[in-house]
Amino acid sequence: MTRISTAFAKPHPALVCFVTAGDGPTAAILDVLVAGGADVIELGMPFTDPMADGPAIQAANLRSLGAGTTTADIFALATGFRARHPATPLVLMGYANPMVRRGAEWFAAHCAAAGVDGVICVDIPPEEDDALGPALRAKGIAPIRLATPTSDAARLPTILDGSAGFVYYVSVAGITGKQQAAQGSIDEAVARLKAATDLPVAVGFGVRTPEQAAAIARVADGVVVGSAIVELVGEHGDSAPGKVREYVSALANAVHSARKVPA
Amino acid sequence: MNAPNSFRNQPDERGHFGQFGGRYVAETLMPLILELDREYRAAKQDPAFAAEFDDLLEHYVGRPSPLYYAPRLTEALREGAPAGKGAQIWFKRDELNHTGAHKINNCVGQILLAIRMGKTRIIAETGAGQHGVATATVAARFGLPCVIYMGARDVERQSPNVFRMKLLGAQVIPVESGARTLKDAMNEALRDWVANVHDTFYIIGTAAGPHPYPELVRDFQSVIGREAREQMLKRTGRLPDVLVAAIGGGSNAIGLFHPFLDDAEVKMLGVEAAGHGLDLQHAASLAGGAPGVLHGNKTYLLQDEDGQIAEAHSISAGLDYPGIGPEHAWLRDVGRVEYTSVTDVEALDAFQLLCRTEGIIPALEPAHAIAAVAKLAPTMDRDAIILANLCGRGDKDIFTVAEALGAQL
Q1: Where is B71: in which H helix or E strand?
Q2: Rounded CA separation A12/B240 (Å)
Q3: Residue numbers of A annotated as active site
Q4: A169 vs A196: CA distance, rounded Å
Q5: A65 touches chain B (CB under 8 A)
Q6: Tens digit of pLDDT per residue, chain A (263 long)?
Q7: Helices (H) and strands (E) in chain B, counts
Q8: Is the Cβ pair A51, B187 closer than 8 Å?
Q9: Candidate from A65, A127, A173 with C-beta closest to B197
Q10: A170: which chain B residues are within 8 Å (Cβ-Cβ)?
Q11: In this structure, are strands B146-151 and B67-69 parallel, antiparallel, or unpaired?
């Protein structure tokens, strides 16, 4: 069992929380995500050109880079997190260029040394897997792939071949943080994915309220929340951890109890 | 590295030019990119597609564009050259195309592909505005709604083109993120596309982006080199000694170069924008960059040691981009094409030189090529031939040039 598979084997759906590294007091925010009930952490690697992200995460990327965040800082955050939270899975999420800049092997080795469990690279599709995938697998880091509303039955095997950790279902054809997909389309897509893979399926993009998260958690193995957390960090800066904890606790309660039969 | 049998059979089926190119896009876009590839292969085999493309280039764009010998520029550059030196300078006059630049060649091809694929909405990014104008033009010609993303800084410095696009019925969206130039416009166009894949065709303006864009843009622009090769043979009975073209993303250069790549006797020089200077802010990705991944392809990029993309600078909005098309990256690494760079100041001097010697106001983009020609010609024999791509006219740039020269309009 890996940390990721253990997290998804809990007796309740998983809450996956995203935060941009280096935007606000990241170490403290990571701690409150865990304390608030997050089961998996996605640590966003800031990039100058986040072309798949909406305004909230774009702004977070710019704040982080403006504050001088480096790749070394991100690995230091990961290393510190792993020391404080030995069991919680940590996934790096971002764009190809910062990941491959010094070579895929360099990146994979540093992920392994920092206790990173998986990597989500937005702009390396299966067709370009050679750019990063083999190096990650060699170090036991899960390459986590994205499936989207445009991933039809013919495309799914290509996506799933070489995937590990979990499958991230991007519920909206669009950028992060904008609108939420209709629940019906999510139910249908999750059923299709679950039929095609044994990997856990987590659903994200546009999830904001505990009610939305709970509705998704009734069908999916996990719910990903990102932009809403990043917005709290943007709004509250150094005092964000308290607000984030409150919000994540509400999400975790909703997600963790989503499949319990109402009394 | 061993020389390949041909320099003209790139990319491979995965869209790779050596280590460059590829399809580095979000998963949402992959099915569409694959469909575009299939449709492009089918269109290439379809005589009706070629016939419609050729017909539009002739009767709508005004091709073939002339091949012009520039006598007074040639003479001007011979003054001060060593005895017997001073090559003949010829121009491929793509600035005489409808809309005033080479960009329209590619837009005609891509909108025919869009229609073939049943897409009903067009988007594009633009830097100088030439590609935006060309896209708005073909969208109007075929009656499709069109949204153009343009960096807010470029909107300010290229206001005549913004107005042109609006006259042509396009919606121009100023992009406020980043440095508010071409790179940021491309990010925003990609965000639009990923949210509207079902009905939208993205007309990319240069020979870059995810496969098959670098290939299809090159193919549509190769009309420049095919015509020039035939015209030069007809006029002089031989091929030119050197081809020269400016490079931002590199579409006019690859369009000129590609049909000549297997003519071993023809040298080629791509000219990047050195902006304020290579040790200051510039847009010369080959001279000052390193391989990386951006906007769907692997290529040379201006970036820091962590892979964060640097802001480019050039007085020419059309060259103001921190990357370059992947085929140029490959041609540089295999040594087939030589690349150099020219500063803002040198380009401004060349701009004025061409105005005064030939009565042609060039765009600031080809002014970079002309500046390189001005350095090269005096080193070559008098019977040598330099062919430069005059890829755009300078009407759009007169305000920028006036400001740089301290003139009040």
Answers
A1: helix B71-78
A2: 72
A3: 42, 53
A4: 13
A5: yes
A6: 899 999 999 999 999 999 999 999 999 999 999 999 999 999 999 999 999 999 999 999 999 999 999 999 999 999 999 999 999 999 999 999 999 999 999 999 999 999 999 999 999 999 999 999 999 999 999 999 999 999 999 999 999 999 999 999 999 988 888 777 888 899 999 999 999 999 999 999 989 999 999 999 999 999 999 999 999 999 999 999 999 999 999 999 999 999 876 65
A7: 16, 14
A8: yes
A9: A173
A10: 27-28
A11: unpaired
Q: To probe the interface with A, which of B24, B34, B181, B321 has the most A CB atoms within 10 Å?
A: B24
pLDDT tens column, B318-339? 898 999 999 999 999 999 999 9
Judged by CB atoms closer than 8 Å, whether chains meet at A150 and B25 is answered as no
CB-based contacts of B94, cutoff 8 Å, min separation 6: B65, B101, B102, B105, B224, B252, B389, B390, B391, B392
Half-sphere exposure of A233 (CA within 13 A, CB side): 29
Q: Under a CB-based contact definition with an 8 Å cutoff, are residues B123 and B146 in contact?
A: yes
Q: Does B177 touch chain A (CB under 8 A)?
A: yes
Q: Quick check: pTM over 0.90?
A: yes
Domains and CATH numbers, chain A: 3-256 (3.20.20.70)
Torsion over CA of B30, B33, B34 and B36, rounded to 10 degrees?
160
Q: Note whether A155 contacts B: Cβ–Cβ < 8 A.
A: yes
A58 vs B contacts (CB less than 8 Å): 177
